[in-house]
Amino acid sequence: MAINIDQVYKTVLLIINKEQRGYITPQEFNYIADQVQYQIFESYFPDGNQVNRLNQNNQQNDTEFFNMFKDISYKLYPFEKEIAFTYVTANDGFIQTAPPELYKIGEVLSNYTGINPNIGSITQYTNKSDFNKITRSKLTAPTQKHPLFFTTSAVITPVAPNPATPNQLLIRVSPTPNSITVNGLTAPTSPQWNFTVGTTLGQYIYDGSSSVNFELDISEKTLVIIEILKYCGIVIRDPQIVQMAAQEAQQMETNEKS
Question: Residue 115 sits in which domain range?
Answer without folding.
Answer: 78-186
